[in-house]
Structure formats: C-alpha cells, structure tokens
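Sequence in, structure out. Go.
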Amino acid sequence: MFYVGVVAAEFAVTILGVACLVTYYNHKK
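Output:
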C-alpha cells in the first residue's frame, strides 16, 4: 500500500505542476 501512496503523491504533484504551468501561460497571454 505504501507504493500506491507514493505513486498517488507523485501523480498529485504532477497535476499541480501542470495546473501551475497552465495558469502561468494563461496569465502571460
């Protein structure tokens, strides 16, 4: 179960990173 938690955490971090990039580019336009 620990491995599943690590994968979920990395997935959440990736989603946050993508969301931040999208927001950054939207404000840049």
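Check: Residues 3 and 14 are 17 Å apart (CA to CA). The first helix runs from residue 2 to 28.
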